[in-house]
TrEMBL record:
Similarity-based family: Belongs to the DNA photolyase family.
Binding-site residues, FAD: 214, 226-230, 358-360
Protein species of origin: Amycolatopsis alba DSM 44262
Enzyme Commission number, as recorded: 4.1.99.3
InterPro entries recorded: Crypto/Photolyase_FAD-like_sf (IPR036134), Crypto/Photolyase_N_sf (IPR036155), Cryptochr/Photolyase_FAD-bd (IPR005101), Cryptochrome/DNA_photolyase_1 (IPR002081), DNA_photolyase_1_CS_C (IPR018394), DNA_photolyase_N (IPR006050), Rossmann-like_a/b/a_fold (IPR014729)
Pfam families linked to this entry: DNA_photolyase, FAD_binding_7
Name by which UniProt lists this protein: Deoxyribodipyrimidine photo-lyase
Gene Ontology terms: biological process: photoreactive repair; response to light stimulus
Keywords recorded for this protein, A-Z: Chromophore, FAD, Flavoprotein, Lyase
Sequence ranges assigned to domain Photolyase/cryptochrome alpha/beta in this UniProt record: 5-129
């Protein structure tokens, strides 16, 4: 292959130019690179409005970085990628590996279609510091428990960030391009600024401010103590390796704790890589026998944040207002759906995927399974969150609840977690102590040896 034959860089979950291993690899093969993105309905249709709107913003930002040279096409990737590559006489298509179930299937088809035209396919790097599937136990089995995975992940280490940027190659003028469709309506929802620059700005702001107190504050939904990087990591506006490199050598409690959270993201992706069916099915098949309710009205009240449990309602309304919810509250609302309302985890997981700007199949489905007790390394089913005491503990002044539940604004301090007879605010829809008992009985019925 001569360095003059152009190549295609097909962007998917790597919408950035910095620290881009696939771009670096492409640049070694050719100076002339066509930047391509395929609008694929198979992925876009099931995504909720916040995620699609954020993606559109990231594509616009990437196009600007490329001086308007992002080729945008719409359709089946197995046809569109081949057409784009042939239109410029490309020798190869370069990508970052997509390790999710759909991405893997799609890429097999695209690779096959390219091979029919003698166009090479090269995968370099992924959306993770260590590509899912790489870390296994010494006997080759995947890890099922987080802590040993984490130790192995740290021991393995990760490559240095790739030194890349817009000027590393000459971007080929797209032979054609479609216009980005109109973004879906967000009904007043405000999303973070999209794109690579915004991601890095947010990260640097966090490093200068909240990193030090991250470990203490990360469980406090009333404080802005976390990175808010999840949507950027979802679309690859920043690579986790860049973030880990900035934390290197920092053994402070904040940096240590944050490394652990990045590792959870990698752990869930690893689990999904080994067991793709767990996106839909219980990881622990004993849970297939769990008795669930089917109660549309209860589900609706949960979705709308009208359960009468203030921390649950605040979380669900934060999701509707911002397309994001604090991690501690995600755990509380998920536990409430599964263990107080006895609804199946996948119902809540689907709703989250529709509303989260950071909706990510691996992190979402496996966190839901973790809460439901059916996942790997699951929180034991019998550990059932009490939504009121959780609220009092993690939102001690009631500030978070009052921020998202206007009906409770007149209730002072901690009392916001136990409102009594507040106008327009519903009474608790269930008796938690009773439902806890029901959950334990149902669990007892399926629990094997
Ligand atoms: P920070 O606390 O700043 O953490 C930094 C990064 O670490 C996050 O951006 C994220 O990439 C990763 N991370 C942190 N906690 C977790 C975790 N428990 N599991 C996996 N990765 C983690 N995260 C998603 O990115 N997408 C989802 O669809 C998603 N669904 C979830 C569903 C449930 C029921 C639960 C309990 C958690 C879910 N999470 C999901 C994990 C977590 O809530 C979010 O990653 C986090 O709240 C994002 O905010 P942040 O970027 O400020 O996090």
């Amino acid at each position: 292959m001569t360095k003059e034959a152009p190549v295609v860089l097909w962007f998917r979950r790597d919408l950035r130019l910095g620290d881009h291993a696939a771009l670096l690899e492409a640049s070694k093969h050719s100076k002339h690179v066509l930047a391509l993105y395929v609008l694929d309905d198979a992925l876009l249709k099931p995504s909720g409005a916040p995620r699609v709107a954020f993606l559109h913003g990231c594509l616009k930002a990437l196009d600007e970085q490329l001086g308007g040279r992002l080729m945008l096409v719409k359709g089946d990737p197995a046809e569109e990628v081949v057409k784009a590559a042939r239109a410029i006489g490309a020798a190869a298509v370069h990508v970052s590996s997509d390790t999710g179930p759909y991405g893997r299937r799609r890429d097999q088809e695209v690779k096959k279609a390219l091979a029919e035209h003698d166009i090479a396919w090269t995968e370099t790097g992924s959306s993770y510091a260590i590509t899912p599937g790489r870390i296994t136990k010494p006997d080759g089995d995947p890890y099922r428990v987080f802590t040993p995975f984490y130790r192995a992940w740290v021991r393995h280490g990760w490559p240095r960030p790739a030194d890349t940027g817009a000027s590393i190659v000459d971007w080929v003028e797209p032979p054609r391009s479609v216009k980005l469709p109109k973004s879906p309506s967000l009904k007043g929802m405000e999303l973070p600024e999209p794109g690579e620059k915004a991601a890095l700005d947010r990260w640097h702001e966090f490093l200068d401010g909240d990193l030090e107190t991250y470990d203490e504050d990360r469980d406090r939904p009333d404080r802005p103590g976390t990175t808010r990087l999840s949507p950027y990591l979802r679309w690859g506006c920043v690579h986790p390796r860049t973030l880990l490199a900035d934390l290197a050598g920092n053994e402070g409690s904040g940096a240590k704790s944050l490394r652990g959270e990045f590792a959870w993201r990698e752990f869930h992706a690893d689990v999904l890589w080994h067991r793709p069916e767990t996106a839909r099915k219980n990881y622990d098949s004993r849970f297939d026998a769990m008795e669930h309710e089917s109660d549309d009205e209860a589900f609706k009240r949960w979705c709308e944040g009208r359960t009468g449990f203030p921390i649950v309602d605040a979380g669900m309304r934060q999701l509707l207002a911002e397309g994001w919810m604090h991690n501690r509250v995600r755990m509380i609302v998920a536990s409430f759906l599964v263990k107080d309302l006895h609804l199946p985890w996948w119902l809540g997981a689907r709703y989250f995927m529709n509303h989260l700007v950071d909706g990510d199949l691996a992190s979402n489905q496996l966190n839901w399974q973790w809460v439901a007790g059916s996942g790997t390394d699951a929180a034991p089913y019998f550990r059932i969150f009490n939504p009121t005491t959780q609220g009092e503990k993690f939102d001690p002044s009631g500030e978070y609840v009052r921020r998202y539940v206007p009906e409770l604004r007149s209730v002072q301090g901690k009392a916001a977690h136990k409102p009594q007879g507040v106008k327009d605010y519903p009474a608790p829809m269930v008796d938690h102590a009773h439902e806890r008992q029901v959950a334990l009985e149902r669990y007892g019925a399926i629990k094997g040896p």
